[in-house]
Amino acid sequence: MILYGAPVREKIKEILVEKIKKLEKKPCLAIVQVGDREDSNVYIKNKIKFGKEMGVEVLLKKFETNIAEKDLIKEVDKLANDDSVDSIIVQLPIPKNINTNAILNKIPMGKDADGLSTTKSVNSDNIITPATARAVILLLDYYKIGLRGKKVAVIGQSILAGKPISFELEKRGAEVFRCDISTKNIPEITRECNILISAVGKPHLINKEFVNFKQVIIDVGINRVEGKLVGDVNFAEVEPVVCAITPVPGGIGPLTVACLFQNLLDLISEK
Prior knowledge:
By secondary structure, the protein is of the alpha/beta class. The protein folds into two domains: 25-110, Rossmann fold, CATH 3.40.50; 131-253, 3-Layer(aba) Sandwich (Rossmann fold), CATH 3.40.50. The protein has nine helices and ten strands. The strands form three sheets. A five-stranded parallel β-sheet has the order 5-4-6-7-10. It has a three-stranded parallel β-sheet with strand order 2-1-3, with helices on both faces. It has a two-stranded antiparallel sheet with strand order 8-9. Strand 4 (151-155), helix 6 (162-171) and strand 5 form a beta-alpha-beta unit. Helix 1 (6-21) packs parallel to helix 9. The protein starts with 5 loop residues before the first helix and ends with a helix. Catalyzes the oxidation of 5,10-methylenetetrahydrofolate to 5,10-methenyltetrahydrofolate and then the hydrolysis of 5,10-methenyltetrahydrofolate to 10-formyltetrahydrofolate.
């Protein structure tokens, strides 16, 4: 079974369009990008396109890779204090010479559409659920894949994807096995799980050695290989083996974009 994200995204889109029509002011999402990474460009292009379709202004603030951290902080502060901007995201990753948390923490809670600021407790119920984690949960709900009591392996523990995904799964009663670069014998762990989620960003990392025939595979990774978008999972090798799997492209990616705009509307409704 192929778990496509498009039906879920379209369902969300219909709801959001109706909400936006009722607003007095056109919503504005600001995206801060540093550098010119190809994968980031793909994400941002999709966000701008989706925003336009829904009637949301998407403001892209793009800076050179060599921008100083203090100057980037000033730019984020400007957006934070701009009443015409309803929410802000920083397109990750940003260059290693810049402290990611220092930038994210400059985004006020009321404008933090990605919910990634570390000034807020990760375990708080009063924060926005990061879009990728929200997308994973909505996809599983849509296809009626239960989580309570299930064993779930999450490979990759970034602040953008793996960590918030793991937290949301645990909130719903799953037994989560958090795997990262330091974890030993990952294939042995994942083969014993009901669900495997990969959020690493390494093409074709997951092969048939990681999976079992009753398993659900959620591929969060997006990578470009020889001009084509591919996931963390070797789809051709794994799809015939498992029970269900998300494709790349066409799986979690489009749904994550929709969930970002859900977060935007949630922030506006709280004002």
